[in-house]
Amino acid sequence: MAELVQRAAGVIAAKHRGDLAGAEELLAAFGSEQARTLGFYLLADLALGLLRGQSGQSLDELVRELSLLVAATTEG
């Protein structure tokens, strides 16, 4: 499972540095939609856990803030 999480993180890192071909290559390497979903789910869970540990907020508070941020960035 660690490989799935690392691959998901790699997709995000590649995209942020402008390497869209690299991101696409990593996405294709998952092999199945189920593996891709699991990788990104585990990455999100770990990221929220790290943020929770650093911020002291509850997971519910973080998810609420994230939901508001997503809604704000998709409006328009």
Main features:
76 residues, mainly alpha, 4 helices, globular
Number of strands: 0
| Structural class category | mainly alpha
Gap between N and C termini: 37 Å
Number of DSSP helices? 4
Helix content: over 70%
- The SSE order reads HHHH
Strand percentage, roughly?
under 5%
Summarize the model shown.
This protein is an all-alpha fold and 76 residues long.
Written overview of the protein:
By secondary structure, the protein is mainly α. The chain has one domain. 83% of the residues lie in helices and 0% in strands. The protein contains 4 helices and no strands. It has helices spanning 2-16, 20-28, 33-55, 59-74. Helix 1 packs antiparallel against helix 2 and helix 1 crosses helix 3. The longest helix is centred in the middle third of the chain and has 23 residues, at 33-55. The chain is globular, with a radius of gyration of 14 Å. The model has no long low-confidence stretch (mean pLDDT 95). It comes from Micromonospora yangpuensis. This is Superoxide dismutase.
